[in-house]
Amino acid sequence: EVQLVESGGGLVQAGGSLRLSCAASGFTFDDYDIGWIRQAPGKEREGVACISSSDGSTYYADSVKGRFTISSDNAKNSVYLQMNSLKPEDTAVYYCAVGSSCGGHYDYWGRGTQVTVSS
User: Phi/psi of residue 29, each to 5°?
Assistant: First the structure.
């Protein structure tokens, strides 16, 4: 059974930082790409970042480039999202998800972790 468990969300002031973690199990980690997707109240889901487990290539939404960094630890089957210089508009539920390629369809999703940035 595929499981994705996010952690690390919370309340932070604008300009602050958070590090999200996604612990994955139930599949061969190296065979999939893993992304972070967020959804704010009343808004559509937005792909924030993605990393290719095969070669480590990373992709970012324009809204977070230069502020967020995605990384993975294949030995720990974990993916991280370091978020710096947070803005109130970064407030959302953040999900990690697994798919065959970044930018494509995600097959499995975690339950999400709430990130709230106060102004």
Answer: -55, -40
Quote the CA–CA distance of 64 and 109 in Å, as a whole number: 21
Pairing of strands 58-60, 68-73: unpaired
pLDDT digits (tens, 9 = 90+) for 102-118: 878 899 999 999 999 99
CA geometry: angle 104, 24, 40, nearest 5 deg: 55
Note the pLDDT of residue 74: 87
Q: What is the largest CA-CA distance in the chain?
A: 41
Q: What would the DSSP string read from start to end of 12-39?
A: EETT--EEEEEEEESS-GGGSEEEEEEE
Cα gap 95→116, rounded to integer Å: 14
Q: What is the distance between the alpha carbons of residues 80 and 99, in angstroms, rounded to a whole number? A: 16
SS3 88: helix
Return the structure tokens found at 25: 């199990």
